[in-house]
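User: Can you predict the 3D structure for this chain?
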Amino acid sequence: MEKITNISPDWQKWIVDNLGRGCTAQSLIDVMVEKNFDPMFANAIVFHFSTTHKGGVSPVLAAQPVAQPAVASNGVKERIAANSYRYETPRFKPGNFIQTNDRVVQVVSRVEKPYIAVLDNVFSHEECDELVKLSQARLKRSTIVDPKTGQDAVIEERTSFGTFFHVNENEFIARLDRRISEVMSWPVENGEGLQILNYKVGGEYKPHFDYFPESDPGSRVHLDRGGQRVSTLIVYLNDVEDGGSTVFPELGLTVGPKKGAAVYFEYTNSSGQVDPMTLHGGLPVLKGEKWIVTKWMRQRRFG
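Assistant: Here is the predicted structure, written as structure tokens:
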């Protein structure tokens, strides 16, 4: 039976009423999945209402960087139409190839709204292996930004282990930082340090946003360090045997992990608006493990 990916007024009322009574978001998601809702859709819709109902953010999702994603009830086209984000000419370069100082990166496919590009040949296999090797002894349980305090927090919704490399930390990292800057068409100094993540079997990151919602008190700490995040590049450092795709549930888009390939997306325009259509997550690893590197770019110099 085909999974349900739309929400009726009765189900909307049920979600809001139960959140108002103090039910956890996860308990509502579990019920919806049992009723044949698509798991990612259920997570996204409960996520939406947990940030907009008058009772505030539910405890289960309180540690995620949340905004108010524009989720409508009748599919992707209606949700895009309801989105107030003003799309501009992408910062990303046109064409099928990107010539960096030391490598030619292939543009495999694009989505225009929101702007997403799937890339190949971003890193060589040797570079992927070197990043994994350098990271293994530095891994710690991954955290997210608590929207109330701005502090790092460990949550069940993110089950990876990771580490960071400072911008230009060594010659090898500096070479990757420069190439990534050229791919993302944004200055090296505006980038956060490379984040390396490792997901074992069952590891996942449920749908979330990479930008910092200005309405969250904890966001101010991070916005003061270079402004809003404007774009993300996720590079896959290994071939995953099964699972581990990057999913954009609002678009019905998944990108499978391929060693050396990447997915790029933009979500902040020149007016400072942020795009809720870039809700994304990492699907569970079903077999093997997944290694990725993530690069976030800021509006201004990061530091």
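Helices lie at 9-20, 25-34, 39-52, 76-82, 125-135, 171-184, 219-223. The longest strand covers residues 290-298.
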